[in-house]
Amino acid sequence: MGSDYRGRNKFHFGLRYALKGLKVAILTERNINIHIIAAMIVFVAGLLYSISMIEWAILSLTVGAVISMEMMNTALERALDHLEPEHRPAIGVAKDMAAGAVLVTAIVAILVAILIFMPKIL
Predict the structure, then answer these.
(1) Does 4 carry a binding-site annotation?
(2) Active site residue 86
(3) 0.90 exceeded by pTM
(4) One digit per residue, pLDDT tens: the chain, 122 residues?
(5) 122, 7, 116: which is closest to 56 by C-alpha?
(6) CATH number assigned to the domain with residue range 10-120, chosen from the 4 options 1.10.3210.10, 1.10.8.60, 1.10.287.3610, 2.30.38.10
(7) 10 marked as part of a ligand binding site
């Protein structure tokens, strides 16, 4: 019983920290909120166009990827800014690459939305 209890306790602490991180991101990061608003629009469109279960799954995974990538980018930027407050070219490159990863994920999300909704709109 002891190890099971500790495992559940670790899970609850981990969940609490994860929810705290999500709350901080939502309350402090403009880009996260932009992605959340876009996700709400996509989900409303999904309801209006009665998309299939597989399309819901694909959209949900895509939205989750974009928001998760934005949060990872933000976490990396904050950590690097804390560790090295002065501008360093290598840190700038790392931050640019993380931002580029968000951009790639967002572009793919737009393409997924087009592939799902365009046939229904036309």
Answers:
(1) no
(2) no
(3) no
(4) 445 556 678 888 889 999 999 999 999 999 999 999 999 999 999 999 999 999 999 999 999 999 999 999 999 999 999 999 888 999 999 999 999 999 999 999 999 999 999 999 98
(5) 116
(6) 1.10.287.3610
(7) no
Distance CA 3, CA 104 (A): 42
Is 70 annotated in a binding site? The answer is yes
Q: Is 86 annotated as a binding residue?
A: no
Q: Tokens 């950590």 identify what position?
A: 79
8, 45, 106 from 101: Cα distances, Å: 34, 26, 9
Residue 97, CA distances (Å) to 18, 42, 54, 101 in order:
24, 27, 31, 6
Domain boundaries, the chain: 10-120
Determine the Cα–Cα distance for residues 63 and 13; give it in Å rounded to an integer.
Answer: 26
DSSP character string of 57-69: HHHHHHHHHHHHH
From the list 55, 70, 84, 86, the catalytic residue is 70
